[in-house]
Design a protein that fits this description.
This protein has helices at about 1-30, 30-45, 60-80, 85-105, 115-130, 135-150, 155-160, 165-185, 195-210, 215-220, 235-240; strands at about 255-260, 265. The chain has about 280 residues and is an all-alpha fold.
Length: about 280
């Protein structure tokens, strides 16, 4: 089943990786040729209605949810280079995609865990890219919901319920929340880190501490990790860049690139919202 899933995902992974390499190059070097490459790929897939079909399994819906974040964030990096025609093709497609994701999470019985945070990231990236206040408001609601779920000790109850995989899923949840807070700061001038008395700070401190000393997390779950814990992606760089006085002594190796984060998160320091 895992092999079948990876085979099905392969074209999606290849597409996102390709356009993000071009988008990163365009943002880093202000290179219009690289931007043209990224935009051409987005236009082709938008014209074909990619990701807008019926998702018959939860895992398919989750995949579509993650991939919107990657596609919308890549577009956000190159939107300044887009022609009116390209915007007219790509942006309605991203909007339809974002609404499809939101409709899935509005269904009765769908858990409001880290998957909702990834939906919020996709909504925020799409809202900023399309300048749609309703999507930005949806992302803001998700962030308030997430902040309200974070306990005083920094733990997320729904992720603690995963037992031996709880630490992995705390890092996985922290990844979209950190990028949402960063985009809100840069694109909206809002401090989402400070919501609910600094809830994201508490989650970050707990996760970073536990990644350095996984045994400390066992006391919260009553179990020990049964396999290596992935530390998430990008969040440590973004957090330290925004809050250099925090986590100064933490020594963790966390990747700065991921296709669901639009490529290289270090380049968000160069991004400015459209006016």
């Amino acid at each position: 089943l895992r092999a079948r899933r990876r085979a099905a995902e392969a074209p999606l992974r290849a597409f996102l990786t390709t356009i993000q390499r071009s988008a990163d190059l365009a943002l880093r070097l202000h290179d219009p040729y690289a931007a043209r490459c990224a935009l051409a790929g987005l236009v082709r897939w938008a014209q074909a209605g990619a990701w807008l079909g019926e998702m018959r399994q939860k895992q398919a819906a989750y995949q579509r949810n993650w991939d919107l974040a990657g596609a919308a964030l890549a577009y956000l990096k190159v939107r300044r280079f887009a022609s009116a025609h390209e915007r007219g093709v790509i942006e309605p497609w991203l909007l339809r995609w974002a609404h499809a994701n939101a409709a899935f999470f509005a269904r009765k019985g769908v858990k409001r865990n880290n998957h909702v945070y990834w939906m919020g990231l996709g909504a925020l990236a799409t809202g900023l890219a399309t300048q749609q206040p309703a999507l930005i408001a949806r992302a803001r609601e998700v962030m308030h919901e997430a902040a309200g779920a974070i306990r005083d000790d920094g733990a997320l109850p729904l992720e603690l319920a995963r037992g031996s995989r709880a630490l992995h899923y705390h890092a996985f949840a922290l990844t979209p929340l950190t990028l949402m807070a960063e985009l809100a700061a840069r694109g909206l001038g809002e401090d989402w880190y400070a919501l609910e008395r600094g809830a994201v700070h508490r989650l970050t401190a707990l996760t970073a501490s536990a990644l350095e000393r996984p045994s400390t997390f066992a006391a919260l779950t009553g179990t020990r990790p049964h396999r290596a814990t992935k530390p998430g992606y990008g969040w440590l760089y973004l957090y330290r860049a925004r809050h250099p006085g925090r986590l100064a002594g933490v020594a963790l190796d966390i990747p700065t690139h991921h296709r669901w984060l639009g490529g290289d998160v270090r380049l968000w320091r160069l991004w400015r919202p459209a006016r």
